[in-house]
Amino acid sequence: MTTAPIRLGGERIVQGCGSIEYLKQLHGKRAAVFSTNSIVKNGYYERIISLLDSAGIESEGYLKFRLNPSFEDVQDGADFLKELHADIVVAAGGGTVMDAAKVMWVLYENPQLKTFESVIENMDNLSLGGNAVFVCIPTTSGSGSEVSKSGVITDSRDHRKVPIRNLMMVPNIAILDPEITLSLPKVLTAETGIDALTHHLESLVSPKANMISDAIAYSGALEVVRWLPKAYDNGENLESRERMMLCSTMGGLAFSAASLGLSHGIAHAIGAKVNLPHGLINAILLPIVIRFNSSHKIAREKYSTVAKALGEDDLSAIVQRLGKMLSIPDTMQKAMNDDRLFEEKLEEMANDSLQDGLTILNCVRPDKDDMIRILHEAYYGTDKHAN
Ligand SMILES: [Fe+2]
Question: For residue 139, how far is its CA from the centre of ligand 1 (angstroms)?
Fold first, then answer.
């Protein structure tokens, strides 16, 4: 039996405190630095520019990122790369920045792709690396985008998040410097950290799981549960920041070697419609999805192994308690407080969630009734229809 090839990271993963200095070892003429105002504020944007400068590399910044970037947004970034004739692309930010910059890099390297449809149609035939080296510097610990083969963009016509995937899209270099995350606000630490946990637990029960992904996902999930509360309680604790950064990258490696599942299928389908952060939606969905997937024997056994390693029996309860510890709202109602919008969009969100490729790939395939029930529980905390 042949399976899809696995790629665990790009050419180099550089990690540890001060590893950002690795930028001085890059070779090139012009770098585009994709980042955000928060990285300007914490001083790291200037530091990146100055490290590139000391390597003799000119650089220009691009800071125009929005939540849920559209195809038009990534096209704008690709035009920026083209005008600059960049031979290095640096993405310094969270998942949104790295994912969007990855697709900008794709468009820059494949200028024949001028429409959203053409990117989707030609996803398997991309050429990358001819123009520029892609370097990721994660500034949150969650997405794992620095080692993943996918970038997510939002279809502005129906507000659906669409992943673009190709093994060639794994960033060439990932620089994991935990010091960058010291100033990360509590809410971002919590939401991105739960996203990393979701990556591990979804990889674990994926039908594509294998010994490589399992080894990463088991230890990654346990480490997140142990270290995330510490990083949340004391953001200045460098050890917990370092552990969480590695957990996040491990999550990216785990889902690259297996796949994500239902929680991400729903999160991609509804995120832009309800305008809630990706990590927050996953935090609310994860305990519900664990219970739903537990009808699957292998999934149930794997969840139980993780729970037992943490000294308990019920993984869903552990995740729920972790969310509470991190002050994450346990329902979408508490997070967005817009019952009308939710009810108006419910049908569309259920249909889009059912069609998402990750939902289709989930170990238990939900039907429409299941999906409505899951969305109800995510929004109200109970299945309102069942009451
Ligand atoms: Fe995620």
Answer: 15
Ranges for all domains in the chain classified under CATH 3.40.50.1970: 12-179
* 326 vs 188: CA distance, rounded Å: 10
- Which class does domain 12-179 fall in? alpha beta
Distance in angstroms (rounded) separating the CA atoms of residues 379 and 29: 50
- Strands 150-155, 160-165: pairing kind: antiparallel
Q: What is the pLDDT of residues 91-122, one digit of tens each?
A: 999 999 999 999 999 999 999 999 999 999 99
**272 CA distance to ligand 1 middle (Å):** 14
pLDDT score for 383 = 62
Can you tell me the distance from the alpha carbon of 258 to that of 5, in angstroms, rounded to the nearest whole number?
A: 10
Q: How far is the CA of 35 from the centre of ligand 1 (A)?
A: 19
CA–centroid distance, 296 to ligand 1, in Å, is 22
d(CA 2, ligand 1 centre) in Å: 27
Per-residue tokens: 232:
């949340």
Distance (Å, rounded) from C-alpha 64 to C-alpha 76?
9
CA of 51 to the centre of ligand 1 (A): 30
In terms of Cα–Cα distance, which of 282, 286, 262, 232 is closest to 371?
A: 262
CATH superfamily of 184-386: Dehydroquinate synthase-like - alpha domain (1.20.1090.10)
The whole-number pLDDT of residue 387 equals 45
